[in-house]
Specification:
- Helix content is 33%, strand content 14%.
- It is built from 16 helices and 20 strands.
- Strands 13-10-16-17-19 form a five-stranded mixed beta sheet.
- It is an alpha/beta fold.
Length: 490
């Protein structure tokens, strides 16, 4: 048997009394006090509730008295959606789904991990924050990217319509499915989206195919908003599905501030207002030209940029025999018919020739000046043609012909206005530089092709004190309680 060393035996004899003796009154009191403080701190944090929305994960428990959405949006410019907040759910109401429509639609967004509310017949219930989405229009994708959530997209209609380099790379990696314009329901259902974003033009608010597949959906009508800031504010609409209201509210306020600042800068120049045509050949009416109405988004953009829109007076009573309303059938990248002042009208070439003096012409069709005179030889007499001042919105395009103007520009009203200002006043300094992003001079500039690029890295934020209320507070409570009881019994 090995004998214990003298040094070790002496050590044990000296240390044992301290290890086995009960805590002194002072140490015991201090121990219990620390445990009590921990319990009070945990109770305080829990009682205070969340300080920010949870953008990742679900609630670990449900407290009916807790406000799960401390970050809220306040809609200022958009007129086609409203929101009401309740403790664990929010009610989004679409007030206009199509031009002239009076039917409303509701989405009930409830915090994941809490029970959905009762009632709301006919509404679509969606658990938030969403993780997998299917935006069935390219304009929606710009909003989603602005929120830093491109990786949430699992399905789109047509790959060829996508201009975002980030989304192209996700498509190449097989992370996004193509469902087609006719919507392949088997493919769409197989992507398991938490929500499908789409539009309705005919009053169908209960798509049978979506309902049969048990898929959740929401309607988007940003295209009906009559001005750039109202349309850009739909960023807040999409943000509510991701619980990212704080981010969206800050972004839209910044966009509005820059937009108003640039508008005021131009208005204060005191320069003559350049006259502007915005017209394209009507695809379904030979000899007619489609122009935006006087109260439409393009008209407002031109005015805010310091231009004089030549068809500003064209509305419900201004057309006379020179123009007619756009047919009811909607088309991609155009505003659907309704009041001609806010959508589009058709004019004949006689009406167009009456404004041949216009300094600038915007088009979505011609790639070169030769294309313009091939379409209509008399355009060669127009001032915009003679002075090489015809612009197409295709500067950022893909090899398939998709343009970022119909994707990224919608959510960035300030940059869109800056682009317009640089066209109308190329020699002024507006704080945005001199390069245009979307409008291209068809006589002097080439298209910039967009290909797949790496997506910005947007890692999930680390847990915060507020998220600990949902996920971590029971653990800290248990630890504090154990310390308290241990201290009382030693």
């Amino acid at each position: 048997m090995v004998e214990m060393s003298r040094d070790r035996r002496v050590c044990l004899e000296k240390c044992a009394p301290r290890c086995t003796a009960p805590l002194s009154f002072f140490n015991k009191t201090l121990f219990v006090f620390v445990a009590f403080v921990l319990l009070c701190a945990v109770d305080f944090v829990h009682g205070a509730g969340l300080t920010e929305n949870v953008i990742s994960g679900c609630a670990a428990s449900y407290d009916p008295n807790m406000d799960y959405f401390p970050d809220k949006v306040q809609v200022q410019y958009a007129s086609n959606f409203q929101v009401q907040y309740f403790n664990n759910y929010k009610v989004i109401t679409n007030t206009q789904l199509w031009q002239g429509g009076t039917v409303t639609f509701q989405n009930i967004l409830y915090q994941c991990g809490t029970p959905p509310p009762q009632g709301f017949d006919g509404a679509q219930f969606v658990s938030v924050p969403v993780r997998r989405t299917a935006p069935l229009s390219t304009t929606y994708m710009g909003f989603i990217e602005s929120l830093g959530a491109p990786s949430s997209i699992v399905a789109v209609e047509n790959f060829a319509d996508v201009t975002s380099g980030c989304l192209q790379s996700l498509i190449q990696a097989g992370k996004i499915a193509e469902v087609g314009y006719d919507i392949n329901m088997t493919t769409l259902a197989g992507t398991y989206p938490n929500v499908i974003w789409t539009s309705t033009y005919d009053g169908d608010t209960e798509p049978a195919a979506f309902k049969a597949a048990g898929l959740r959906y929401s309607f988007v009508s940003e295209y009906l908003e009559p001005n750039p800031l109202a349309r850009a504010e739909w960023l807040e609409f999409f943000a509510m599905f991701y619980n990212r209201e704080k981010q969206a509210q800050a972004a839209t306020e910044a966009i509005a501030s820059r937009y108003h600042g640039l508008k005021s800068l131009v208005a204060g120049l005191g320069l003559p207002r350049p006259s502007v045509i915005w017209a394209n050949p009507a695809w379904d009416a030979p000899g007619m030209w489609e122009v935006p109405g006087g109260q439409s988004l393009p008209a407002g953009l031109i005015t805010d940029a310091g231009g004089a829109y030549t068809f500003a007076s064209h509305g419900a009573e201004a057309c006379a025999w020179l123009c007619r309303r756009v047919p009811a059938q909607p088309r991609a990248n155009t505003i659907s018919s309704g009041d001609p002042s806010t959508s589009s009208v058709y004019v004949n070439f006689t009406a167009l020739s009456a404004v041949s003096y216009a300094d600038v012409w915007f088009t979505d069709v011609w790639a070169t000046p030769a294309d313009a005179v091939k379409q209509q030889p008399l355009i060669a007499s127009f001032a915009s043609y003679k002075n090489n001042r015809i612009f197409n919105s295709d500067k950022l395009s893909t090899s398939d012909g998709a343009t970022d103007y119909n994707e990224g520009a919608v959510s960035q009203a300030d940059l869109l206005l800056a682009d317009m200002v640089r066209v109308l006043y190329p020699n002024i300094s507006d704080g945005y530089g001199t390069a245009r992003r979307w409008f291209r001079n068809i006589a002097t500039e080439n298209v910039t092709l967009v290909g797949p690029t790496a997506c910005p890295v947007n890692p999930a934020p680390p847990p915060t004190a507020s998220s600990a209320v949902l996920h971590g507070w029971p653990m800290w409570t248990a630890l504090a309680a154990a310390m308290f009881l241990f201290g009382m019994n030693v």
